[in-house]
Structures are given as C-alpha cells and as structure tokens.
Amino acid sequence: MRKIGILTGGGDAPGLNAVIRGVVEVCAKNDIQVFGLKAGWRGAIRGEGRWLTLDDVDGIQMVGGTILNSSRTNVMKEENGPENVRASMEKLGLEGIVAIGGDDTLGVADKLTKMGMPMVGVPKTIDNDLSCTDFTFGFDTASNITMDCLERLHTTAKSHMRIMVVEIMGRHTGWIAYQAGLAGNAHMVLVPEFPKTVDEIVSVIDRRTKAGKEYTVIAVAEGFTLEGMNDSDLPRDSFGNVDMTKKAIGETLARVLEERTGQESRHVVLGHVQRGGAPSAFDRVLGLRLGIKAGQLVVEKDYGNMVALKGTDIVKADLSKAVSERKEVAKDLYEAIELLCNK
Predict the structure, then answer these.
(1) What is the C-alpha separation between 211 and 119, in angstroms, rounded?
(2) How many DSSP H helices and E strands does the chain contain?
(3) Mean pLDDT over each residue of the chain, to the nearest integer
(4) Phi then psi for 242, rounded to 5 degrees?
(5) Chain-centre distance of CA 90, in angstroms?
(6) Which is nearest to 161 in space by CA: 97, 106, 205?
(7) How far apart are CA 300 and CA 306, in angstroms?
(8) What residues contact 84, with CB distance under 8 A and at least 6 apart?
(9) Contact present, 283 and 124 (Cβ < 8 Å)
C-alpha cells in the first residue's frame, strides 16, 4: 500500500484541519495511508506522529488550530536536517509529504523537493501574502475577527476622546489591516507597502480634531515601520524573521502620537486572537477544496507543486515561484484606503 506524510508548519491558521481532512479523504478512497507528522518539520525530522484514519478527520473542518500541532522548525538550520527527514520518510515508508504552511514551511518543502524528497505544498497564512494563489485559508477568518475588534474599539475610543492604535498581524504585508481596516471603518490604515511619516499621520489626526472629530482609530500592520526606526538589531527566529513582539509598533506609535498631539493615546495588540477559534465558512470550504486537490496530486504522483485558488478554481501552481515571490497590497487596492481613510 502507498503511504504519504502530512504536516502543518508555522503559525496556526483557521482551516488547517479542513485541509487535513481533504487530503485524508482522497487518499483513503485511493488506498493510500496518511501519516500525520507531529509539530511540522520537527516531526518530519524525528519521525514522530501517527497514522490518520477517516474517524480521526470526521468533522474536523469545524475546529480551529491543527490536530497535528505545529512548530517553526527550519529543517535547513537543524544539524543533518534534510538527511533526518529522508531517514524518517524511509523508515515510515513515505513516498512523499504534503506540507501545509506559509513561505517558510513551503520554502523548506521546495528545497527538499530539489533534494529528491517528493513534496506537495498547500498555502497557509493568515497574512495572505503567498503568491500564485488569490487567497490563503485563514485570512478570511482573521480579517473578520480583526474587523469585529476594530468596531468594538470605536466606542471606547470615542467615549474617552482618545487615539486608539490597533496593532494587527502582518509581518511583511498589510492584507489583514487593509481588509479589516476598510470593513471596520478605521480612520487610518498603515501597512508596510506604503510607508507614512509621523508628520503625515499627525496631520490626519489634526484634520479630524479641527473637524470636531475627537477620536481616531488607527489600524497598523505589525510590519509597518516609522521613518527613522531601525529593525536590524531586533531578535529573529530560525527563518530570519523579526520578532514582532520586540518591535512593538503599536506601542511605539501610540507613545509618539501622544507626545506630538497632546491627545491621550492607547495601543491594543490583537496578537494571536486573530488566528484563534473556528474558521469561517469560506475558510472551511477553501481548506477542504485545497486538501482534496493536494490529495489528487498525491494520487497522480504529481509532486513538486503547490495547490492554489485562482478565481473560483482550485489549480496546480509552481511551488518554487510561490515561495520566491511575495504578494503585496497593490497600489490600486490601497487607493480605497486613501479615499475612505487616512484623511
């Protein structure tokens, strides 16, 4: 009987379990056993995990998180990492692995594919910044959670006549801040793709104050950098990503704005609440469809590819291209922010 592995790596995203179910269902129908590797690439290195049955995945698309656990393990930085993954695959009899993750997890999958270990990638990130796919699962859920938080913060900001700076996930891009900021009526939306100076931000607050609007809600992506800020000395993870908790753009911006405007300012870090809980209907269905397509690629032994959403279709995409290009908020999309917010 054919056997494959499956893993979930990096930050959790609502919809991971839906993908797992899709893969297992298709493989079971085609007499392929699926081994769930525990905690991402760490489990692949150690050969840890369990064989998954249809009972294990029944209904799990309704549940957030991942039944396989996750980690930010970088195989390429571990001693004998690739060799240990190969040894685990051989010991378990796995012909390939379905890797579900963002650019870091899929970047490892791409490298291992080129080293002769068959992989299928499934794009996962609430940040929605992976190229070759129109949307990644988890993004819709995270955007809706963030939108709800922004709506709630309007009332307390208005009651106390404060500047409320809301720090939103988005290390490299501002997709969640963009989506939730527009939907949640943020007065300013600050994203890494379109830098703003402190003077530009203050000018918006001043215009609102002169117009009798005594409070301002600012949605800022965690990767946004103020002019003069230096991220080079901040700690980084095994993939070289800045530790955003140490950058603290929300806290920094709130402090600077209070100093410049004299208006009481507060910051809120939404953090992991954005990726928690049950997935939206959109993310449940998208996850299932991506998992089904990934399972079909396994059946066909069509490794070295990624599955993706194009329009309303689930298609095969170039894994190497997907991990080498980042999808950013485009200028024509950001024009909606300039029209409705930032004024």
Answers:
(1) 57
(2) 13, 11
(3) 94
(4) -65, 140
(5) 31
(6) 205
(7) 14
(8) 45, 46, 78
(9) no
- Beta bridge pairs of residue 7: 99
State the pairing for strand pair 49-52/32-37: antiparallel
Mind listing the pLDDT tens digit for each residue in 135-175?
999 999 999 999 999 999 999 999 999 999 999 999 899 99
**pLDDT single digits (tens) 88-142:** 999 999 999 999 999 999 999 999 999 999 999 999 999 999 999 999 999 999 9
Q: Give 62's DSSP letter.
A: G
- Token reading at 95: 């012909």
Query: Out of 103, 127, 129, 140, which one is annotated catalytic?
Result: 127
pTM given for the model: 0.93
pLDDT at 338: 86
User: What residue type is 146 in one-letter code?
Assistant: T
Whether 205 and 257 have beta carbons less than 8 Å apart is answered as yes
pLDDT at position 227 is 73
Cα gap 75→89, rounded to integer Å: 14
260 token code pair: 């410049």
Beta bridge partners of 247: none
- How far is it, in rounded angstroms, from Cα 75 to Cα 84? 9
Q: Give yes or no: 127 in active site.
A: yes
Compute the Cα dihedral for 142, 145, 148, 154 and give only its sign: negative
Cα separation, 144 vs 233, in Å, equals 33
C-alpha–C-alpha distance, residues 175 and 129, integer Å: 7
CA trace torsion 273, 133, 314, 137 (10° rounding): 0
Burial of 303 (0-12, 13-18, 19+ CB in 10 A): buried
Give the chain's residues under pLDDT 50: none
Angle (CA) 248-252-256 rounded to 5° is 170
Angle at 139 between CA 137 and CA 141, to 5 degrees: 95
**DSSP-assigned letter for residue 301:** T
Let me know: does 106 contact 121? Beta carbons within 8 Å: yes
